[in-house]
Specification:
The structure holds 2 protein chains of 2 kinds. Chain A is α+β, with helices and mostly antiparallel strands. In chain A, 47% of the residues lie in helices and 12% in strands. Chain A folds into 2 domains: 2-58, Arc Repressor Mutant, subunit A; 70-154, Glutaredoxin. Chain A has 7 helices and 4 strands, in the order ααααβααβββα. In chain A, a hairpin with a 2-residue loop joins strand 3 and strand 4 (131-133). In chain A, helix 1 (2-9) packs across helix 3 (35-45). Chain B is an alpha/beta fold. In chain B, helix 3 packs across helix 4 and helix 11 crosses helix 14. The longest helix of chain B has 20 residues, at 528-547. Chain B is globular, with a radius of gyration of 27 Å. The chains are: A alpha+beta, B alpha/beta. Chains A and B meet through helix 2, helix 4, helix 5 and helix 6 of A and helix 2, strand 10, strand 14, helix 18 and helix 24 of B.
Amino acid sequence: MKNTIKDIIKPYRGEKGSLIPILQAVQEKTGFISEDAISTIALNMNMSEHEIYGVATFYTQFRYTKPGDHMVKVCLGTACHVRGGEQLLDRTENILNIKPGQTTLDSAFSLERVACMGCCALAPVIVVDDKIYPNVAGPKVEKIISKYSSSDEKE
Amino acid sequence: MDFAEIREKAVAKWEALQSSKTPVIYLGAATCGRAAGIEAVAEEIRQTSKELNLNISLVEVGCIGPCFLEPLIYIQKNGSPPVCYGKITPGKIKKLLEDYLINNDPRPDLALGTLGNGRVSGIPGLFEYPMLKHQTRLVLRNCGIIDPDQIDHYIARDGYLGVKKALEMSSSEVIAVIKASGIRGRGGAGFPTWKKWEICHNVQSDDKYLICNADEGDPGAFMNRSLLEGDPHAVLEGLLIGAYAIGANHGYIYIRAEYPLAIKRLEHALSQMKSYNLLGNNILGSDFSFDIKIKQGAGAFVCGEETALIASVMGKRGMPMPRPPFPAISGVWGKPTIINNVETLGTLATIMRKGGEWFAGFGSESSKGTKTFSLVGKVKQTGLIEVPLGTPLKKIIFDIGGGIADDKKFKAVQTGGPSGGCIPAELSSLPVDYESLMSAGSIMGSGGIIVLDEETCVVDIASYFLSFIQAESCGKCSPCRIGTKVMLDILKRIKSGKGEIADIDKLSSLAETIKNASLCGLGQTAPNSVLSTLRYFRSEYEAHIIDKSCPALVCKDLIKYAISEEKCAGCGLCRKKCPADAITGKKKNLHIINESICVKCGICYQVCPSKYGAVEKTTGFLI
């Protein structure tokens, strides 16, 4: 773990203002920002852990717990909001039985609400991993989620 | 290779593609097209062409605008103009390829139109299509037409001639051209681009920075994403022109991490620029040197504010700083820094090529040129559009947008994102320019136009935007940090039927304080959504407070669902779909909703077949 993070930091050494790209790279690689990761970055970048934690928590992109196998993001941009985004979020919460920011007990799903995916013309949208599903009004979301849960349980 | 040779080769390559003997299928493969399923369509084309023994080239293009028709494909046969087909599904592919490519029937019944000059018999030009007909495309001229990963396509369509022309002038002359164009910042505030540049140009410094602000944070807006995905070189050429004008040697593109495709396109575009000497040292053989780096935003709306963005670029918390000093004097690492929006930059090359006066010929007296908008919400034809500034709102909504979806009543239009406001239907002849929108209590913002119908509650909309702002407030100054929280609490109270009539005055007075006392633009504009809705829709607030009713039937605590005894056919669909098991009833008998368990999710209302329409929403029952 420590070495992975050291490897991530290496190309940024000596470059001013590279903390955010480093945190992004760590999250990309390990799925979240662990306490260990923060300590390692602090040591190697000659910064205090507080400073790093302060920067990281300012931005919504960073997570501090291990996410589930599938990341479900419900878009609540304006276009999605007026076309039923809140209801979509309610429904997704019900199906997964978690609130945004949480992960299901079996670690299969994490749920997040996001401000806008830029697919406003196809609102409301939901994103599972990197796939964007358009026009998810009504009970459609059940089918989408079940696609991911069934394959998981078997494998 | 000098630029003349590069251009000659690029033109040859572009022309060869257009006159290709092999059929070419262009795929609308921007994020919206991908979301709508273009990848499955592409796969089907590959399979089917093998099956039918057809040799086809596939070319990815960006988004041409009418997103509601996605996925879009364009089939070009034997050098004739590409024919555009919308709402294509994998199931439609085989028949279409057989009909057009084998049996020579371009299926005018399915076609939306043809691209470019020339016609295919029986099919009109795509730009005669109602949504596209009323547009003027300067910024979006290449979107959906060229392959954004091919710098040669961009060059063949006069790309990089703007920067070439700029490099033959002095930097002051370039600023003069931009001044003559009258272009104002497209990111929101509308500050004249040349003025900002001139301040920076006049500062002496070894290092200067030019940043492209691609942190398109307004929910409901995707113009910048579409431009970056469809024509990244237009924005990059703009960066070169701007950098040359102000004397910058370092460039950043600050782009939100939520736009992975745009980032990929930009990375690819930057490497191509390097190979053509359009980036790095002595660009195109001149004395001008410039490099561009991509910085990914990490999700903070306030980073659209210039000083916050600069803090973020330097790896800090994105918190705004008091101004002065202005970034043009002291920005990134204390060096003079200019931040321009994606669209502003994307317009510059065309201005340089065609001249400032030419550009100033579009638009209105105070707002020159064209502007892109994302037209979304309760409108029939959603998508990305570009019109001259000064175009009346109703032309955008009705002629381009085709009117209100499901033929509901037009209520209002929201512009400017969370910093903007709602403009009521009565003011729909308002011209869309910086001043008119401001006087109506909204702002231009970056270009989101969200159409609201009678089923949208303005108190809900105001509360939506305020909760967004409140969550995004950086917390540095108390008017914004605390003020927006208190305003939001009041709005939530009103939405839940617990509001008092004095709340309206409290909201107005808090709004004034927050506007006047906040440190940055985020706080100063935060109350706009509340102020504008209070101004035009006060009675709707009063209905929530006095009658405890939500006239638009949106606010959950003020509505309930019931099944009509006369209309219910007992099909049982609502019972099966109800997530709370709140509906009981036997097959072919009346169904009943148990109010005490109902979570008001509205699924029963949506799934009840329209021939029955038995589930009804009511409000105003609390008194």
